[in-house]
Amino acid sequence: MGTRGWRVGLVVNRVEDYALPVIRGMESVLAPAGASLLVLVHPRSAPQPQPWVERLRRAGSIDALVVSTVVDPVTGVSDVAGLAAQAAGLPVVTLGGDVPGVPDVSGDNAAGVALAVAHLLAGDRRHPLLVAGPADSADSAEREAAFAAAVAGAGLPPAPVVRAGFHRETAYRRTVEALSALGTVDAVFAANDEMALGVLDALAARGRRVPRDVVVAGFDDTRAAATAEVPLTSVDPRLREQGERAGQLVLGLLRGERVPARVRTGCELVVRASTGGPDGAGSSAAGGTVPVALLRDVRSELLVTHHLLGLEHGLSSVASEDELTRELAAYLPRVAVRRAHLASVHEGLAHLVHSTDGSGGAPAGPYPVEELLPPARRGELARGTLVVQLLTPGGRERGLLLYEQERLDRYTAEALQQHLTGALQGLQRARRARARAEELERLVAERTAQLQAEVHSRRLAQEELTRANARLSEALLVDGLTGVRNRPAFDDALRRAWQQHSRTGAPLSVLLCDVDRFKAYNDSAGHLAGDACLRAVATCIASAVRCSDHVVARFGGEEFAVVLPGTDLAAARQVAERVLARVRGAALPHPGGAAGSTVSISVGVATSPGTVPGGTTCEDLLRAADAALYRAKGTGRDRLVLAGSPS
User: Fold this and answer.
1) SS3 category, 96
2) What contacts 569, CB < 8 A, 6 or more positions away?
3) In the predicted model, is pLDDT for residue 465 greater than 70?
4) What is the CA radius of gyration of the chain?
5) Which one of 44, 453, 528, 620 counts the least CB within 10 Å of its CB?
């Protein structure tokens, strides 16, 4: 049993509260049998001749498929039957589906809804509203029919129905519309917890109090329901047990055994504050407190979110695949990701750019994306649980992420998808830009050679060379790390501004800026991170300087300078204050400082106000600014000091 290393795919909308207990239930059955689980996050449509699950089947990447209540992310229509059809020829099990010939596992929807509606209407509530899922979803249809039967059994007329596709945002919008159109609503049942949370959002937006004005109940008893601002009463359909039973059915099909056509799990009502139960009620109508384990999980998720914000910041400025790999290696262990494989995708072919399996120099591509991993690494698919996310920004396949987390959470999958999609797009843009630059360089070289070879076109060749030299000269004046002007460009700008100042008597100001405690930053985070910090600071300074004739330059190391022709001391001070504000506003973390500290700069300001005294030079102005900077550093940093001021 299990010697084949079966790979079972589970298709989910997202790694969310609904999916997590199902995944854990399937793991508890598949792992002892030696089978692996691939959690396939349903991708947005992409321009491919074959859908994603069909491609995985044809490539032999999955041996069986379990389909949860998946909704097409574009149309909002149930996609369960279509996904089952894509896996034709493989063992298939659905969760809350109604596909002929396909075994199904679901909760006892009718019994669960009856409990919920009876509870909602117990307090003389007479104006219920149903927020339903997709009309073609078997689970949603059963819950809708059970709701109608329960309302009729209470002697009430049919209740209005709004349809929200199992999504929180859609439920919020539809409920706001319904509250405006219907007038009196005093009880709401939503066909899943995610929509019920959207209902709570809508009621709060309309000033309706829960449970005093309106009572609300959902379905699935997810963690988000228990930890909502108003804890949500919900039907517990025993999702983990559903996952266990689905795992048992799919293993039976893989072994060629006969399995039941339908398996039902029981339901119970969990009463919480949204229907008048005690705040933080536990797993029964009798009440109780939020379990310690749940509180511990919430705290753990807050820590994960903190680390994911750090990863977002790190990935926002990567300029190469090596930098991307370093950022992932630094942050993924902090969110308990044990295995991770990231590939960039172009025209259906994947190239592995990061892997934590220690395979060394094994081939990394290109390989068909539906094979998920290169041949030398495909053994990774046959063990444990891997989340599989096809990254499809704008409907185009750009990347593929597979990862295993010590304990799956609802934030990591979404954050990794967003952050890595952005990083891969940035790298692809950079590669295209480099390719264009190389092509342009080649064309320029060819054209130059042609012009030089043509005696009768020497004049044209000379003009082309002059333009190329001008571009080269301009490039020589730019600091290669930060993108602002370099030191020679600054010296030249200051010299020309001084000449104008001496000739016209217009004021001239200079700012000298220094990144505070930069050595500690480099010692803690490394020089590559320090380089990224300098780029960010340069951007802040440049954005604070508004006049086209003002020059921002890297003065040296972590120092920057600004030449402000025609600017008096008051205006120069305003520029310096904007520079400080921009750097503070960027809130760049300082790993070498105390916990929560951010990068800051100190600024020295010097002004030559009018007629230049004899023997005075621009170097004197620069020395005055440097002295002011020295005083700013010595009096506490993160401030500006004016030359000649006492502090």
Assistant:
1) coil
2) 507, 509, 605, 607, 609, 642
3) no
4) 32
5) 453
